[in-house]
Amino acid sequence: MAQPKQQLEMVRFAGDVPAISVLPQGFLLRSYEEQDRASYWSLFAEVFQTHNRLDNLLTASLPNGFHVVVAEDSGDVVASAVAAEYERAGHNEMGSLQWVMADPRHTGKGLGKAVVAAATRTLANGGYSRVYLSTDDWRLPAINLYLGLGWKPLLHAPDMEARWAVVYEQLKRRPNPAEFVSAP
Predict the structure, then answer these.
(1) Which of 27, 83, 138, 169 could form a disulfide with 23 if both were Cys (CB 3.0 to 4.6 A apart)?
(2) What CATH code is carried by the domain that includes residue 18?
(3) Which residue(s) pair with 67 in the sheet?
(4) pLDDT tens, position by position, for the chain (184 residues)?
């Protein structure tokens, strides 16, 4: 199956900020620290099967916007999301949710929800009236999470409506026209 040329995008507007979920015992939500570098990159390579530059993430992240969940017994990063400001066509002066990941060995514990809610809160508190994220059509659990936290699909290209229809069908969700936002 050929990969679509453009990623899906979602936006969120200022307003209600999602509550940060309570984590199960043994996990801690906090800001990234230099001691997390090796563990973060190990998980990043596993989840995304690529390498990005951590320096770029650190530079672009908002103050206290690089959120991680660590397993208290090992100190390993098991989930992460970055609240950042990236210049991107159509999203000037907007905050962005970046590089959301969770260790697949800890699925179902609410770790992804905690880091996404924390990063979304950081973006809202950063004064952005609108924030965005980019994702892939096949990242269904992440998209379902984003929808549950108030993110809305952005119709930014001619094929977006059809692609979102497929995503909603795969998620077994009924699309609500009010959930979709047309690109400016």
Answers:
(1) 27
(2) 3.40.630.30
(3) 31, 81
(4) 565 578 999 998 867 777 777 899 999 999 999 999 999 999 988 888 776 666 677 778 888 999 999 999 999 999 999 999 876 666 666 789 998 999 999 989 999 999 999 999 899 888 888 889 999 999 999 999 999 888 999 999 999 999 999 999 999 999 888 889 888 7
Query: Is the pTM for the entire model greater than 0.85?
Result: yes
Within a domain: 1: no
2 within domain boundaries: no
The DSSP line for 44-96 is HHHHHSS---HHHHHHHEEEEEEEEEEETTT--EEEEEEEEE---TT-TT-EE
As a whole number of angstroms, the distance between CA 51 and CA 71 comes to 23
> What is the domain extent for residue 63?
8-182
Domains of the chain: total? 1
Output the six-digit token pair for 110.
């609410």
Q: Can you say how many angstroms the Cα of residue 29 is from the centroid of all Cα atoms in its chain?
A: 15
Strand partners, 130: 13
Give Cα separations from 156 to 11, 89, 115, 132 (angstroms). Answer: 11, 11, 26, 12
Comparing CA positions, the residue from 163, 7, 164, 18 lying closest to residue 83 is 18
